[in-house]
Amino acid sequence: MFKKILCATDLNKTSRDVVKKSVQLAHQFDSKIIMLNIHEEFMTKEEMGMLRVSIDKMKLVFEKIALKAKNEMKELIQKLHAEEILVEYVIKEGKAQHIICDESKKVQADLIVMGNSEKNIITDIFFKSTSAFVIDHVDVPVLIVPNKS
What we know:
Elements (H helix, E strand, L loop, with lengths): L3 E5 L6 H15 L2 E8 L5 H6 L4 H25 L7 E7 L2 H11 L4 E5 L5 H6 L3 H8 L4 E4 L4
Parallel strand pairs: 1-2, 1-4, 2-3, 4-5
């Protein structure tokens, strides 16, 4: 039923629950998991030029951030004893809501698993939450894992 599960995680304190649910579903449906981590703080060359920042130096910083994120995702999978599941690790830059939608189409995901944002109700009135945006813009089921804290 779900051969490819896109697990969108920002590696915050609720990420373990999102990854755990993805692993449970992958076991149940013999699925592949695509672990997606998105960084909005990465800058384009133009932005770095405007700030008069060394592009090479910033690239190294971004590479370190990406490597750290990939290692954190791998640790989450290992802590859940899910080494037998086929997992692909993807790190992207940009706005989470757009990247999740684009990546789900690119990898042909059958299911998206993600957490709800930690925004408050006032923020949600003015800015649509990432999960609400994704639900409105994809054609596959989206499982939202609630923030229990």
